[in-house]
Amino acid sequence: MPESSSPRATMPKPERHVMTAVVAPRYGSSDVLRVEEVPRPAPAAHEVLVRVRAAAVASGDVHLLTGRPYLIRLMGFGVRKPKDSVIGHDLAGEVVAVGSAVTSFRPGDPVYGATGFGAFAEYACVDEATLAPKPAALGFEEAAALPDSGMTALQGLRDVGGLRAGRSVLINGASGGVGSFAVQIAKAMGARVTAVCSTRHIEFVRALGADRVIDYTRDDFADDSERYDVLLDLAGNRRLSDYRKVLAPDGVFVSSAGAPGGDWLGPVLWIGKVVVANLFVRQTLRPLLMKPRRADLDYLSELVENGKLRPAIERSYSLREAPAAIAHVAEGHAQGKTALIVGQADSSEPA
Q1: Exposed, middle or buried: residue 324 (CB in 10 Å: 0-12, 13-18, 19+)?
Q2: Phi, psi torsion values for 209, nearest 5 degrees
Q3: How large is the greatest C-alpha to C-alpha distance in the chain, in angstroms?
Q4: pLDDT tens digits, residue range 299-317?
Q5: Cα dist. 49→14, 45, 57, 343, 346 in Å?
Q6: 92-143, pLDDT tens digit by residue?
Q7: Would you state the pLDDT for residue 44?
Q8: What share of the chain is helix, strand, coil (3-state, %, to 5)?
């Protein structure tokens, strides 16, 4: 009997052109999410195809899932339903393939970064400009928790706030995803850090390195006698006058979480108020809009490698538990980051 017809012969494993992904067929709460088999993406010229090992849930994922404020639907994300049904921004994994114009990565490289969509899946395409080598000191789960929140904290403190060694900073909302990074980054920059959080998170925030912690359930930071050089607001729960009250005369207020402005405009009205007020006061008042970039990921990686920064993950879920993970973040009281473990793909699976 020819060898090819022998029952013992091993047939080549067919290449999979589909993948498991978390899909949002319409706008809504986490209840609308489905875990389905969808076509595996192919990288464009400047993109990298990543085999996702872990992803992280950010507050932005919640906004894009709900489609609120409605203004974001008119900004290219889809009017009646999400334009890109596979959700998720932050990921870490291994390079599978690269586009024709990619020069920084090659198959097999461990990487982490941010993509516009598609991170909650077994594979995702990421622009080369928003991807970086994974720090050796971090596992995939921790690395996935770093991009969006880490870059937001870094740009808010360094680029918008102008924070530097010896200066003081107050971080309102210090226990969340961005806040947990902001405390550590500010300390790494040599600043004196005062953190605002609830009673449940006091020890957590203190362990991150905060010099002083204010429990907002007991004390009002607006009554504080200290004046801060930089105030990074991640909560959006106070009046502008309250923030200015504790800001030094030449201090900088950085707003990353606008006060609620309804289902249509969301924080737009708040951002406008900050911009207009800045024209009439000595203090500097600025909104923060984070822009993903490779240089900032490299900066964060350096802090990690030097032992000055570590992602704090409160809970981890499997990919199929993504709806529960998003519901947890949507509640608004998550401590640190929430991660998704996508799992180890079969090593024999062809790329």
Answers
A1: middle
A2: 120, 5
A3: 91
A4: 999 999 999 999 999 999 9
A5: 19, 11, 20, 17, 17
A6: 999 999 999 999 999 999 999 999 899 999 999 999 999 999 999 999 999 9
A7: 97
A8: 30, 25, 40
Q: pLDDT, tens digit, for every residue of 58-99?
A: 888 888 888 776 777 767 677 788 878 899 999 999 999 999
Q: What is the pTM of this model?
A: 0.90
Counting every residue written for the chain, the total comes to: 351
Contact 337, 312 (CB under 8 A): yes
Q: Sheet containing 284-287: give its strands across.
A: 212-215, 192-197, 168-172, 228-233, 247-255, 284-287
Burial class (CB in 10 A: 0-12, 13-18, 19+), 70: middle
Please name the residue ranges forming H helices in the chain.
59-66, 140-144, 147-154, 177-188, 202-208, 240-245, 262-265, 268-278, 294-305, 322-330
Secondary structure class of 197 (helix, strand, coil): strand
Matching residue, tokens 């969808």: 38
Q: How far apart are CA 319 and CA 220, in angstroms?
A: 40
